[in-house]
Amino acid sequence: MSRKLNTDLLIILIAVPILWFAPSGLKSYGLYVVSLWLVMSIAAMGLNLTLGYAGLTSLAQGAFLGIGAYATAILTAKAGWPLPAAFLVSTGLSFLVGVVLGFPALRVKHHYLAFVTLAFSVVVFLVARNEQWLTGGVYGLANIPRPVLFGTDLGGGLAFYRTVLVVTLALTLVMWWLLHSPWGRAFQALRENPLRAASLGVDIRAYTLLAFAIGSAFGGAAGSLYAPLVEFIDPAPFALSASFVLLLTVVAGGAGSFFGPFVGAFFSYMLPELLRATGGWYLIIYAAVVLVLVMVSPTGLLGLIDRWRDHQSQRRAAAIRAAARPTLASADKPTLENQGAAP
Amino acid sequence: MDQFLQLIVAGLATGAIYALAAIGFTLVWQTSQTINFAQGEFVMLPAILVLTAAHLGLPMGLAFIVGSAAFVLLFGFGFKRFLVEPMQRHGVLPLAIATMALSVLIKEAAKNGFSAEAQPFPSLVPEGSVSVLGAAVSVRDIAIFVVAIAAILGLQAFITHTRTGRTMQATAQNPTVARILGVPVERMILLTFLINAALALIASYLISPVYLAKFSNGETIGLAAFIAAIVGGFNQIRGALAGGFLIGLIDNLAAAYVSSAYRTAVPLVVLVVVILVKPEGLLGRKEERTV
Predict the structure, then answer these.
(1) In order of start, what are the domains of chain B with their CATH numbers?
(2) TM segments (chain A) (predicted)?
(3) Are B30 and B235 a contacting pair, CB within 8 Å?
(4) Tell me: the pLDDT tens digits for B152-174?
(5) What is the DSSP string of A289-307?
(6) Do B108 and A126 make contact, defined as CB atoms within 8 angstroms?
(7) Do B111 and A119 touch (CB under 8 A)?
(8) Which of residues 24-53 of B touch A (CB under 8 A)?
(9) CB neighbours (10 Å) of residue B47?
(10) Mean local confidence (pLDDT), A329-339
């Protein structure tokens, strides 16, 4: 276990400097795409906690992304708040809404939770579309400012990307800490066997609610970065299909694996931009690939790698065993042959 | 009062469509624990296939036959054989996620392969209205209601009065015992998938003349079918039937008397209330849990 912890941290340690410097040559569009990848990774990371570690199927992550984005847009563009304050409020708001929505999670399990969250997603979308006085309706909210921190303008493509990177790093570390705290282990116990967890004294209700609310808060945090990234939001990106795609993202990356969300988000949000040339066909290719992936490996892309690694180590072990057997035989055989030859 | 009566008839017609989709949904759930998130797309697609066949130069009658056959083959047999069967051993969730991917796939394929615009679909029933108790009621609504009810009654009769139908029920209730008693379980499961495809087909041909054939139609219908199935009772055909009508009526009445902007939200509120108060659905049986 402890070696696994170190690998995760090591990967973060290596990845951050690369991600900090590598995109510096990119044009503004490229920077936008990389930033989008990080932002969606945060949302997927939250859903990974809910789904992959706590085992709760939520179809509301797209809605939480929307709640965070709208809260931030309204607070910064309309009320003139600075982004960090809006970020904290948006994240906190998503957490609270997660707690309120999470109460059904205490009563119903399995697929019913998926349906409750599905209903919630649709309602959030309807509110965003219909309450024009607050959300701008279908016309959306424009001119969402990018942040200025301590007099430094972080609005440029690269500067904003690095801001997003720092926030992503911070949230990744929070998630890492969370998963390795007793809480994280309780979440996993919840997923594996809720009854046993309960009999071992884990308060199922409290932990279910907590996992769901924290996952939602990550969704809100992602939305809060999404709004200034795109600078204009309307209800469309937060419709039910957004929640579907986020769920597919987590599953494609590997539900319950730490870096799965990053791999999945690369797959779901960055590749489409790279494959724009295929036009509308991309989503078809994407859906088909996910379908095949889920069928071949329900544990996602990282699961595929794990399986390959298991397979390799099994083969290596088999090779060692195979190599060991002749030595025993060759030690024995001559004696047998000698015995046979002697008489 | 006139308006109210019109709304009731329209609600029953919409409800009948929802009931068709919801019944297929529960059948497939009962026999193979498949939550089909692509159910709405299943209702959207047959009309598109027929129009595609017609665009390729087939006469309309033949286009109907070709489209229907292609749909049942692909999404009755093919869906069961190539998606559900290999996925089943992984459990309910991965299978549900696979159907989500399938729903995106069908929708995008219809959008790119056929048309992003709504296309007119030939109606089998003339337009117009008749006067019932002083209210003008659309002939089409009545026809939709009658055809859907006939299909559902036919299905009900098949399930309760034929040997195959009862065998199917046995499969749904207890596959292990059914297998021991010599029921060809796999064939029965396949049969429910074919019935599901047939019900989707009927729903598609009934609804498309009204809503036009469009790739995004499945979203509304699929959502309504889920809600109907859960509200009525996930494990009962009559539950899905009642749920379908209930949601159809609520949908139409909410649009008129609550708010047209939030008409979708009202059935959702009903859904959440039902899940919280009676998770097994209004007519459903409680599923026992063993440790």
Answers:
(1) 2-277 (1.10.3470)
(2) 7-23, 29-51, 63-81, 87-105, 112-128, 159-179, 206-226, 238-271, 283-305
(3) yes
(4) 999 999 998 999 999 998 888 88
(5) HHHHHHHH-TTHHHHHHHH
(6) no
(7) no
(8) 35, 37
(9) 29
(10) 49
Q: Which residues of B touch A286 (CB under 8 A)?
A: 104
Q: How is residue A237 annotated by DSSP?
A: G
Residue of B nearest to A104 (CA): B276
**Which residues from chain B sit within 8 angstroms of residue A284, using beta carbons?**
105, 108-109, 112
Give the nearest chain B residue to A52 (CA atoms): B93
Closest CA relative to residue B215, chosen from B45, B21, B79: B45
Q: What angle do CA A120, A126, A132 make, to 5 degrees?
A: 135
Of the candidates B203, B238, B194, B232, the one whose C-alpha atom is nearest the C-alpha of residue B41 is: B203
Chain B 82-121, CB below 8 Å of chain A: which residues? 83, 86-87, 90, 92-94, 96-98, 100-105, 108-109, 111-112
Whether pLDDT at A339 is above 80: no
In a mutational test of the A interface, the residue from B80, B275, B289 whose CB has the highest number of chain A CBs within 10 Å is B275
DSSP letters spanning B178-219: HHHTT--HHHHHHHHHHHHHHHHHHHHHHHHHHH-B-TTHHH
Distance CA A50, CA A209 (A): 10
What residue type is A233 in one-letter code? I
Confidence at A106, pLDDT banded by 50, 70, 90? low
pLDDT in tens, B237-251: 888 999 999 999 998
Of A160, A219, A210, A121, the closest CA to residue A32 belongs to A160
What average pLDDT score do residues A23-40 get? Answer: 87
Of B105, B264, B272, the CB nearest to A116: B272
Q: Is B171 on the interface with A (CB under 8 A)?
A: no
Output b/e per residue, A247-284; b: 16+ Cβ within 10 A. Answer: bbbbbbbbbbbbbbbbbbbbbbbbbbeeeeeeeeebbb
**Nearest to B219, CA basis, from A125, A220, A208:** A125
Among B93, B97, B262, beta carbon nearest to A248: B97
Q: Is the pLDDT of residue B287 over 80?
A: no
- Comparing A86-100, A138-152, A197-211, A326-340, the range with the smallest average pLDDT is A326-340
